[in-house]
Specification:
heterodimer; A: 176 residues; alpha+beta; eight-stranded antiparallel β-barrel; 2 helices; 9 strands; B: 302 residues; mainly beta; twelve-stranded antiparallel barrel; two-stranded antiparallel ribbon
């Protein structure tokens, strides 16, 4: 009988242990990703409908529709979708990564944590490993993420050399 | 024995719980894939760029100039190739139309233009009523409507003709129905009605003319396409032919260059559909080109 009691307590403890380890996921459907050409300020677009999730195990994902990028010039937006991004053929861009320095981030404590995220960015049918440096900010238990990086369009087989070779990408998400 | 069994059972439960808890660990990567797939299933995709430009060669396409944009268009038609070397196969003489198109909203545009031949001014309004889209909501075609008018400004030296202002007016109404079959191929048919208030120096035909335009676009690369357009008229003025044009579009950034061969010199609706006096069979073929440059109005521009 005693043994069972011990066992029961052990099980309970273990269970609690697992409970505590159960993962927390935060998500948003209104993440914001912008890109801009460093050489031509008119080449600038914003997508406010980015789906993104972050988990306290360090996983971080983004997904967006290329056609969700809005340009100031309607013609530029059409060219972007038609000739460069080929959005009908490759409708989505997608990122799956992990926070490399997860130990430095405390999801339960308010604060601003510098992070380095490594993962696979898929766009225009090409998947490439990228590293993004950014900030995860915890406020009232809810994380927000910001980061920026540069995409070399050639790496993704996007031939836009007549417009721009690179774009600077900025990411900003407030998770719920 | 009983204790052992209980112990075993407890251990079993514990293992199960552990597995269960582990299974509860969501893989965000997989979650994203399934969520995206579910979303893609329910979305409606608008068809873009049925044609590169608002004109295929001379004929209006279903496309609308982007909202807030101005499209500056210069069209040129040279003299017929069969004039021989003396006129450098027609290149010595050129007729031009200079025009400005404005995108007023996503689906509405207006345009004005001036053609040298017969000193014509023209204005039109084009409205897209339906957009091709696929996915959850399927729409097979894009439909736009065109209303155009032209004023022939040339001075008639014969006073007995007694030409009044209304005699110089021409009206065109057109329905454009287009479908982009795939990334490369787009077709359009354009039933058209044209009104001549007065037939000046024209015999046969009618003051009320009906025609149907057939337009085809075949892309051969991301930036180059081959285009053809042809109009069948129900009634023709004496000595005129159905207009046929074959051309190439070359797209570079904000410009579209359109190069073509055509038997027609007119560059607004009534003249190129109904006043084409050249025949492909007789070699009355003209070289022509259009240049389109898009500017943005409002807001700051570099």
């Amino acid at each position: 009988m005693k043994q069972i009691k011990v066992l029961a307590i052990l099980v309970t403890f273990l269970f609690i242990g697992y409970q505590a380890e159960a993962q927390k996921i935060f998500g948003t459907r209104n993440g914001r990703i912008t890109f801009e050409s460093p050489t031509d300020g008119d080449v600038k677009a914003v997508n406010n409908e980015v789906t993104s999730r972050i988990a306290d195990n360090g996983q971080l994902t983004f997904s967006l529709l290329m056609k969700g990028f809005k340009f100031k010039l309607a013609e530029m937006q059409e060219h972007f979708n038609d000739q460069y991004a080929e959005s009908t053929k490759f409708p989505r861009a997608d990122f799956k990564g992990n926070i490399a320095n997860l130990k430095e981030v405390n999801f339960t404590k308010d604060g601003s944590y510098k992070v380095s995220v490594k993962g696979d960015l898929t766009m225009h049918g090409v998947t490439k490993n990228v590293t993004v440096n950014g900030v995860v900010e915890i406020k009232g238990g809810k994380p927000a993420a910001r980061g920026s990086f540069v995409i070399n369009l050639k790496d993704f087989k996007i031939d836009a050399s007549s417009v721009t070779e690179k774009v600077e990408v900025e990411v900003s998400c407030q998770y719920q | 024995m009983k204790t052992l069994l209980k112990r075993f059972l407890a251990f079993f439960c514990l293992t199960c719980t552990t597995i269960f808890v582990h299974a509860q660990q969501v893989d965000l990567f997989k979650l994203q894939d399934s969520a995206s797939a579910a979303e893609d299933k329910n979305k409606t995709e608008r068809t873009l760029n049925t044609f590169y430009s608002t004109r295929l060669v001379t004929t209006q396409t279903v496309e609308i100039t982007g909202k807030g944009s101005m499209d500056f268009r210069i069209n040129h038609r040279f003299s017929p190739l069969n004039q021989g070397f003396y006129n450098l196969f027609g290149l010595d003489f050129v007729s031009a139309r200079i025009g400005f198109d404005f995108g007023l909203s996503d689906n509405l545009m207006i345009g004005i233009g001036r053609t040298g031949t017969n000193k014509e001014g023209d204005a039109f309004l084009k409205y897209r009523v339906l957009r091709q889209q696929s996915g959850e909501k399927n729409v097979p075609v894009t439909i736009s409507l065109l209303g155009a008018m032209a004023y022939r400004g040339i001075r008639y030296s014969d006073p007995t003709l007694n030409v009044k202002t209304k005699d110089r007016m021409y009206y065109t109404a057109q329905v454009m129905i287009a479908r982009k079959f795939n990334e490369h191929t787009s077709l359009q048919i354009s039933p058209t009605y044209t009104r001549y208030n007065r037939k000046l120096f024209l015999t046969g035909g009618s003051q009320d003319l009906f025609s149907i335009g057939f337009l085809a676009r075949q892309k051969i690369s991301k930036r180059v396409s081959i285009n053809a357009e042809y109009f069948v008229q129900t009634q023709r003025f004496d000595g005129t032919y159905n207009p046929l044009s074959i051309g190439v579009d070359i797209q570079t950034g904000g410009h579209v260059f359109q190069l073509h061969f055509t038997n027609s010199i007119g560059m607004n609706e009534h003249t190129f559909i109904h006043e084409t006096f050249g025949s492909w069979g007789k070699g009355d073929i003209r070289y022509g080109f259009n240049i389109s440059r898009i500017f943005t109005l409002g807001g700051k521009k570099k």
